[in-house]
Specification:
By secondary structure, the chain is α/β, with parallel strands linked by helices. The chain is built from 13 helices and 13 strands. The protein has two domains: 163 residues, P-loop containing nucleotide triphosphate hydrolases (Rossmann fold, 3-Layer(aba) Sandwich); 182 residues, Nucleotidyltransferase, domain 5 (2-Layer Sandwich). 32% of the residues lie in helices and 18% in strands.
Length: 400
Amino acid sequence: MVVAGRRWGKTQLGRAWLFKQALTKGAGRYWYVAPTRDDAKDIMWADLKQACPLEWLAQPPREGDLALNLVNGAEIRLWSAEKGSGLKGRRLKALVMDEYADMDAAMFFEVLRPSLGDFKAPALFIGTPKSLNHFYDLFLWGQSSAKPSWGSWQFKSIDNPYMDPQEIADAKADLDERTFRQEYEASFESVSGRVYWAFERAVHTKESVTLDTSLPVCIGFDFNYNPATAVIGQHWRDECRVVHEVFLPFRGGEATIASAAACRDWLAGHNWAGDVRLYGDSTGVNTKTTGPSDHQVIRDVFPRASWNIPTKQPNPRDRHASVNGRCKTADGKTHMRIDPSCVKLIADLERVVYAPNGDVDQKTDAMLSHISDALGYWVHQDWPPVTRTVAHSAHMAHWL
């Protein structure tokens, strides 16, 4: 169990460890498992190929399978935890579980743990913390004499000698305190209670917010049947200013049309003639709350607006961290102002909480979390937390 902050080099460690196992033990299966196939490919695949000398390869890399076959009969292959029980029944010689905190606990204990038995194969768990969940339980096992076959280590990002100290300073100025401790100091933080814990009504809504004609208008949408939600605001330097909210329950298949039209009409009522920037859920390219997709609906309503919706959905943890970071960064500064008229958004920021499993509680009150999501899509795009990247593999040969 290696728990470490961002950019410490967790994935590089996992890659070097897999190569060492494969070169030492020979023929057999050596697996790397990430939460999704996209994660496995984006995080590991290119660097895995780059770090592997051609003379080690028995054949060209198998791109479709994300696999390397070595001359000694070893196969190093990347998998997704999304495969679930489809990964059962294979005998493994070594296993890496990357970002296990983002997987179901059963993925190891019910699916992959039996695959280690035949060869008494070792497993390496690497990742950053995500609350006091099953990843935390394994960390405690590694610290306990009652579990002698487990070991655990904890490293801060600053422990990586190749990491620029300025990156740590920048992260402290971008992230809220709890997220900074979790993501850069590898601290297990309790997530019981509020998701947007850094928001304070008395601090962030104490005065009205008005439109500045010298700035573009930013509109964040959450594409949802009930309620239809959106927020309207402006990006001023490092400050997020929310001017107006749209919260429309029971609109059914017309939800996106209704929220987009409400935004357009509100801006028209304020004689807005400036630029408009659109933000929202990336899955709206496929969602059908109306005839055309949600993305097409808002393009039709705002044909001259600039498009700021990413092609890939942000990690919810990163989205929440972005909002908390605008409310208060780790250096103690606030960067969020919300007009007091945004009563639904204010209530959302105060009341959205985590469920016991560490995910957002969407069952207790189904009307909560949607308008704060609309804000989050905008804030994450304009003020993202430090990107989840891995250390460069230049030192791989030395580590091997």
